UniProtKB/TrEMBL annotation, chain A:
GO terms for cellular component: periplasmic space. This is Spermidine/putrescine ABC transporter substrate-binding protein. It comes from Alkalibacterium kapii. PANTHER family: SPERMIDINE/PUTRESCINE-BINDING PERIPLASMIC PROTEIN, SPERMIDINE_PUTRESCINE-BINDING PERIPLASMIC PROTEIN. The keyword Transport applies. It is found in: Periplasm. Its main location: periplasm. Spermidine binds at Y92. Pfam families: SBP_bac_8 (PF13416).
TrEMBL record, chain B:
InterPro entries: MetI-like, MetI-like_sf. This is Spermidine/putrescine ABC transporter permease. The chain crosses the membrane at residues 12-32, 52-78, 90-115, 198-217, 237-258. GO terms for cellular component: plasma membrane. Keywords: Cell membrane, Membrane, Transmembrane, Transmembrane helix, Transport. It is found in: Cell membrane. GO terms for biological process: transmembrane transport. It comes from the Bacteria. Residues 57-259 form the ABC transmembrane type-1 domain. The keyword Membrane applies.
From TrEMBL, chain C:
Belongs to the binding-protein-dependent transport system permease family. CysTW subfamily. It is a multi-pass membrane protein. This is Spermidine/purescine ABC transporter permease. The keyword Transcription regulation does not apply. It holds the Pfam family BPD_transp_1. It comes from the Bacteria. The gene is potC. Residues 61-250 form the ABC transmembrane type-1 domain. The lineage of its organism: Bacteria, Bacillati, Bacillota, Bacilli, Lactobacillales. GO terms for biological process: transmembrane transport. Keywords: Cell membrane, Membrane, Transmembrane, Transmembrane helix, Transport. It is found in: Cell membrane. The keyword Ligase does not apply. PROSITE patterns: ABC_TM1.
Amino acid sequence: MKKLTVLSFLIVLLASGLHFTKNLLQHTSGTAEPDIFHLYNWGDYIDPELLSRFEKETGYQVIYETFDSNEAMYTKVEQGGTGYDLVIPSEYMIARMIKEDLVLPLDHEKINGFENIDGAFMDLSFDRGNQYSIPYFWGTLGIAYNENMVKDAPMTWEDLFDSEYRNSILMIDGAREVLGIGLQATGHSLNSKDRNELDAAADKLTDLAPNIKALVADEIKMYMIQEEAGLAVTYSGEAADMIWENEDIHYILPEEGSNLWFDNMVIPYTVKNKEAAYAFINFMLVPEVAAQNADYIGYSTPNKAAMAYFAEETIEDEQFYPDQSTLEKLEVYEDLGQEFIGLYNDLFLKFKTLK
Amino acid sequence: MDKQRKLLSAPYYLWMGLFVVVPVLLMLFQSFRDMDGSFTFLNLKGYFTSPVYLYMTGQSFLYAFLITAMTLFISYPAAYFLTKTKHKQLWLLVLILPTWINILLKAYAFIGILSQSGLVNQLLGVMGVGPQPLLFTRSSFLIVATYIEIPFMLLPLFNALDGIEGSLILASRDLGANEWQTFRSVVYPLSLSGVRSGIQAVFIPSLSLFMLTRLIAGNRVMTLGTAIEQHFLVTKNWGMGSVMGIVLIVIVFVVMGLTRKHQRGGIG
Amino acid sequence: MKKNTKRSSVYLAVVFILLYLPILYLFFYSFNKAGTMNQFQGFTFKHYSALQKDTRLLIIALDTLRVALLSSLAATVIGTLGAIGIYFSRAKRTQRILINLNTILLVSPDVIIGASFLLLFTLIGFRLGFYSVLVSHIAFSIPIVVLMVLPKLEEMNEHMITAGRDLGANQWQVLKEIILPDIRPGVFAGFFMAFTYSIDDFAVSFFVTGNGFATLAVEIYSRARQGVSLEINALSTLLFLVTIGLVLIYYFIQKKQRSKKQPLSLDPTNHEKAVRP
């Protein structure tokens, strides 16, 4: 008993020690309640240097919280509980949040630097007139391949169905991404809400199943770098990192078209500090800041004015800043509504069990 | 006297009420509601008529069983030998410490070890065997899952084995039993309570493993955890997710019933 | 007999090596010049210096440890008392129902637990942050403590308690002098399991963190979109070394004390001491 008490006491002591050390690290000198700005973003999705610069320039104290998927983020924002001032979800989730009144309309008067954003990324189907959201990063879905591990460079989704590639493709683990391939390979929109088209797409995908080595997520990058597989369906930002690490890897956008995605800044209904949210939006719209952030993260920035800060070769890189005609073939995910999200996911589950 | 004791256990009952009974009732309630919130049996029917869901349930059960069997097979001798070492408490701690490293990180380490250019394949290369695809196979999934779960089995087993009084074993020896006989008729029956907690501590979480199914098995192994996660987060069909949750609970009660019987048989 | 101990040490050594191989692999690559966990390209400390600058990660690590320590302590206390309550409940049926209830939480998939906890907290207006995480970690750790303690109670010699009572011990003395020393290994096991659950948990923590408070698992998973950086390896290496160090120090201090006291008292888990008035 005595020993147990002593041990318990030691544990409590250790915990207080940890708390004390933390306070030392935080070096908040305890003067007056600081003006807090609450940012909810993907993990490691902003250059930390920019965060401290923002703090220094505006005097706000940033609380940075992270999520690992749009869906998880949605559940948390919807439920309330924490007063997030700014969230950075992907476009299909923004559409859903707009529909459910989870985000607030933006006051365009308060935003400086709108004109820095490339017109191609404004006024899109998920948020007409950018009433609710401002682009943060954008990218595409495409095929990454290792030139030493394929017989010919793939050009289309159809190329992935080649029986030569048996058990050698890494696929992103997402219902819309996978069904999208089936839909586009059969010539349909990846926002299809036609049951026949969807069944046809799922049918088409049964031929792809034997070629799939694994359905994975963020790890694709690592697998491709260490040449575990020669082909992968992945996002442009991930591909950029792969190419950085392994020169044999290339990234293409399939000829049938593909998905264009966005992560945009929105102000959720839980906002407590609107002024800070606008200050942050304006800060991120500054070309030099956007350039530094894109340089750190490796994704494509929608900020046209930021291009001036990049090396010539980055901008001319067709893989990551595609020309207008390619861009036009890309589709943005639309919110499908409850029923079709369910159907897409059921078809996807079935596809998974084919393995 | 009893009143005092009840008072001491009060926080336990409070906590259980708030965090077990309420969520389970919520789950039960949800499983009979459709997406619009009205009463329905469709979720239940949907589950039991879907070959995909039933297949996943079967797989969950099968893999959880295999993982539990393998961890038990490896941990039992380890725990038994451990009780005989000199600094047994220290060694036990040392064997359990690896669990404190984040599971995602350990999974990434395994990816490095099992990959085409990884440690195992390099060893195979030295032995003159060409690189084998080791990742994304069911067996590597089993190996990694077993690795993750071993400490959870080891601890209760060690406790049960260590609790057996030395005098019983000495008595058995004095009566002329050899080591194997002593083990079979003294040590083994007395360790069964530990086996039971070990099985529960491993089997139950194994049913809904979903991290490793993706990272190591590349979704070649599908467990109910994957589907539940999807219904709760992506499709927002909490009714369907809850039905699966309830199914899991029922499966576990069946397993517990079985292990209980097993114990009785062992002692009798 | 000699041969047998040799064989058993070989077996233990193999298990030990297998359990530590991935861990050593992680440690080794925390010194890798390249950014990934394959192809070692040279020795560097850069991930450690990056870690030193990443106060966010350090703070989260400290918070995680604090929650794990406190929640497992609380869960151990509540769970042990709960297990004693279950054990002594008269009707065997009540006992079985309680044990079943106990298992439900272990069974429920993390996502369900997390989402329902979030629902619960917002419903009663509990602010998300340190305390919401602490309370939920206590909640999901209690069942595992009970699971570890119950078998020890079942093994306990009941005559000892009766004897204690006959000698005039009150409820508290019985608990302190007889029950607790006897079930101590189970209590320790419960604490360690609870600590492990708390450190490793992602799904539940994700839903109940907020207002600037996060745990390491949540942060690591959220960073996975960019690939897990070797900085996390460096952090894990350091934490692990500190832990091993603490364990060793504690163990040897304890041993020293024990050997000093040897002639006076026997092992505290020993029954003899328990019945001594």
